[in-house]
Amino acid sequence: MQTATPVPRKATRPRADALRNRERIVTAAREMFVEFGPDVPLDEIARRAGVGNATVYRNFPDRDALVREVVCSVMDRTAAAAELALAESGDAFEALERFVHTAADERISALCPMVQSTFDKNHPDLEAARERIEQLTEEIMDRAKAAGQLRSDVGVGDVMLIASQLSRPPAGAGCDLADRYVHRHLQLFLDGLRAPARSVLPGTAMTMEDLRQA
């Protein structure tokens, strides 16, 4: 008696409509986390995404999983923009400018605080996305320094921290006000990074390790 050899099953790919639903959920969650913080009811996210509650939970079993997906997706898009700037721009400082302004548009400053308050900040997905951002930022800055366009006494941590602070609305101010002025203020900051430096900075350049330990 011969035993039939089992035929390996092909892994099923998510249907296009399922992928669209997941994308809508992540987009709605990103918008609402920025507006209301990470504690916004998942029912409200489902309503804005135009899907049922069951669809949200089918894609994301708990709030932490959704928050993590949103933060990682923002970091991934920001990193992709940095890679594009490196590839397309022949001007090293212009690549840095494009990266910083894109990070502000992605609202990375509003989403990053959720990493510390809602779930494990050492999750492998989050660490991978963060390392990619850090490496690309350092590469952009090293290129600008080598070209003599970026002052030598600033570190990756300096840029990440100040860009984050400038693109986040101050206490008591709405997001609309911050949106109107964020790129203006970021450009003032970026102009201050240009070489030759007009002043001597106190202290030492901030590294990403300094930023993580703060």
From TrEMBL:
<keyword id="KW-0804">Transcription</keyword>
<dbReference type="Pfam" id="PF21597">
    <property type="entry name" value="TetR_C_43"/>
</dbReference>
<keyword id="KW-0238">DNA-binding</keyword>
<feature type="DNA-binding region" description="H-T-H motif">
    <location>
        <begin position="41"/>
        <end position="60"/>
    </location>
</feature>
<feature type="domain" description="HTH tetR-type">
    <location>
        <begin position="19"/>
        <end position="78"/>
    </location>
</feature>
<keyword id="KW-0805">Transcription regulation</keyword>
<protein>
    <submittedName>
        <fullName>TetR/AcrR family transcriptional regulator</fullName>
    </submittedName>
</protein>
<dbReference type="InterPro" id="IPR049445">
    <property type="entry name" value="TetR_SbtR-like_C"/>
</dbReference>
<dbReference type="Pfam" id="PF00440">
    <property type="entry name" value="TetR_N"/>
</dbReference>
<dbReference type="InterPro" id="IPR001647">
    <property type="entry name" value="HTH_TetR"/>
</dbReference>
<dbReference type="InterPro" id="IPR009057">
    <property type="entry name" value="Homeodomain-like_sf"/>
</dbReference>
<dbReference type="InterPro" id="IPR050109">
    <property type="entry name" value="HTH-type_TetR-like_transc_reg"/>
</dbReference>
<dbReference type="InterPro" id="IPR036271">
    <property type="entry name" value="Tet_transcr_reg_TetR-rel_C_sf"/>
</dbReference>
